[in-house]
Amino acid sequence: MVEAAVPDRSISGAKTQSHSLSIRRLRKVYGDLAAVDDVSFEVERGKFLTLLGPSGSGKTTILMSIAGFVQPTSGSILLDDKDITALPPDKRNFGMVFQGYALFPHMSVEDNIWFPLRVRGVKRAEAQKSVMASLELVQMAHLAKRLPTQLSGGQQQRVALARALVFQPDLLLLDEPLSALDKKLRADLQWELKSLHNRLGATFIYVTHDQEEALSMSDDIIILRDGKIEQMGGPGELYERPATRFVADFLGKSNFINGTVAGTESGSFTYKAGDHALVQAGAAEPAGPGGSVLIALRPEKLTVSQAEPATRNRVPGTIDAFNYYGANYHFQVRTQALGDLIVTAPAWKCEVDPAIGNQVWLGWEPDASVVVRDN
C-alpha cells in the first residue's frame, strides 16, 4: 500500500504508483430494491474508468461501495487482489471528489489542501511542499490564501481535486464532479482532468450521466441500467458497436429501423423495411429469411442530398424540422417506409436547402449501421 503522506514523494514529479481494483458479484439491496444487482468488473492499474448511466442505474451506489461509505449486501471489493470490502473508508486511502466540492468555507485554499494531511498527523511545515505541489498541479497556487467563497465554481472544483490528490491516494474516485459547472467550463475541465490522469498515471474511477464526458475522458466505460451492467468496453467500441437498443440510444443518439431478413450475401445480409430492400454489412448472420432484425444508425452516418445518392441504402423523405448549431444542422426527415429519421450534417457544406417541406434523399453505406438487440 502507498504511504499516506510523505512530502518528498511530490505529485509534481514522476507518475504515482497505480493500483488495480476488482469488483466481484457486488449486490446492494434496499428493502425490495436491488440498487446494484450482481455486478462484476476489473479496473486495470492506471486506467480511467467511467461508470455511466441514467439516474437510478446504480453507478453512485457502486462508487460509494468502493469508497467504503456503503456496505454491500453481498459481493467483494479487492484492491490489488486484497479484499477491502469490510475496511472502513478512512483506512482505504482513496481520494474522493464530489459534485458539491465539500470545501471548508472558513479555511483558506491551502488549509483545505492541508486538511487530509493534518488528520494523518503531518505537521504544517512538513506538509507545505506537498500542498503547494498539489495546488500547482491544478494551477491554483496563486490563490492559496483565498477562501473558497472568493473562488469561482471551476476554481473550487480544482481545489477539491488538489485536496483529493495531496495525500497520494491509491484510487481517485470522482462523483459527477463537473455537473454543477456551465457547459464551456465543464468542457475545459474535461481536458484538464484527462491531462492530469495522463501525467499522474493513477487509477481514476469516474461517475457521470453525461455521455460526452464519458466518451471524451475514459479509457473504459461501463454502462449501467437498473443496477446491472448493460455493456462495457472502450469508448469507440461502445459507440460504434452498441450491443443493445438502450446503449445505442443512451450513448449518443441513434435511429432505429425494424426490418425482416430477406437473404444473406458474403459478409452481409439484405432486409426489408417497408417497400425498401436494404443491406447490412459486417454483422453476425441473423435468423434466417423472415426473421426480425433491429438496426441502429447514427445520425452523422446518414447523408442528406437533393439528388438520389448512389449508395445501396437510400430513401426519399421530407424535412419536417431542423435546428442550426453552428457547426452542424440537425434535420428531422419524415420517410414513408422508415418513419422519422434524425440526420446530422456539417453546416459549412450542407448539400440541401434547410427548409421545412423540402424534398430530400437520405443515404448510408451498408457498414454505417449495426444490428442491436431490442430492450
From TrEMBL:
<comment type="similarity">
    <text>Belongs to the ABC transporter superfamily. Spermidine/putrescine importer (TC 3.A.1.11.1) family.</text>
</comment>
<dbReference type="InterPro" id="IPR008995">
    <property type="entry name" value="Mo/tungstate-bd_C_term_dom"/>
</dbReference>
<dbReference type="Pfam" id="PF00005">
    <property type="entry name" value="ABC_tran"/>
</dbReference>
<dbReference type="InterPro" id="IPR003439">
    <property type="entry name" value="ABC_transporter-like_ATP-bd"/>
</dbReference>
<dbReference type="Pfam" id="PF08402">
    <property type="entry name" value="TOBE_2"/>
</dbReference>
<keyword id="KW-0067">ATP-binding</keyword>
<dbReference type="InterPro" id="IPR003593">
    <property type="entry name" value="AAA+_ATPase"/>
</dbReference>
<dbReference type="InterPro" id="IPR017871">
    <property type="entry name" value="ABC_transporter-like_CS"/>
</dbReference>
<dbReference type="GO" id="GO:0015417">
    <property type="term" value="F:ABC-type polyamine transporter activity"/>
</dbReference>
<keyword id="KW-0547">Nucleotide-binding</keyword>
<dbReference type="GO" id="GO:0005524">
    <property type="term" value="F:ATP binding"/>
</dbReference>
<keyword id="KW-1278">Translocase</keyword>
<keyword id="KW-0813">Transport</keyword>
<keyword id="KW-0472">Membrane</keyword>
<dbReference type="InterPro" id="IPR013611">
    <property type="entry name" value="Transp-assoc_OB_typ2"/>
</dbReference>
<dbReference type="GO" id="GO:0016887">
    <property type="term" value="F:ATP hydrolysis activity"/>
</dbReference>
<dbReference type="InterPro" id="IPR005893">
    <property type="entry name" value="PotA-like"/>
</dbReference>
<dbReference type="InterPro" id="IPR050093">
    <property type="entry name" value="ABC_SmlMolc_Importer"/>
</dbReference>
<protein>
    <recommendedName>
        <fullName>Spermidine/putrescine import ATP-binding protein PotA</fullName>
        <ecNumber>7.6.2.11</ecNumber>
    </recommendedName>
</protein>
<dbReference type="GO" id="GO:0015847">
    <property type="term" value="P:putrescine transport"/>
</dbReference>
<comment type="subunit">
    <text>The complex is composed of two ATP-binding proteins (PotA), two transmembrane proteins (PotB and PotC) and a solute-binding protein (PotD).</text>
</comment>
<dbReference type="InterPro" id="IPR027417">
    <property type="entry name" value="P-loop_NTPase"/>
</dbReference>
<dbReference type="GO" id="GO:0043190">
    <property type="term" value="C:ATP-binding cassette (ABC) transporter complex"/>
</dbReference>
<feature type="domain" description="ABC transporter">
    <location>
        <begin position="21"/>
        <end position="251"/>
    </location>
</feature>
<keyword id="KW-1003">Cell membrane</keyword>
<comment type="function">
    <text>Part of the ABC transporter complex PotABCD involved in spermidine/putrescine import. Responsible for energy coupling to the transport system.</text>
</comment>
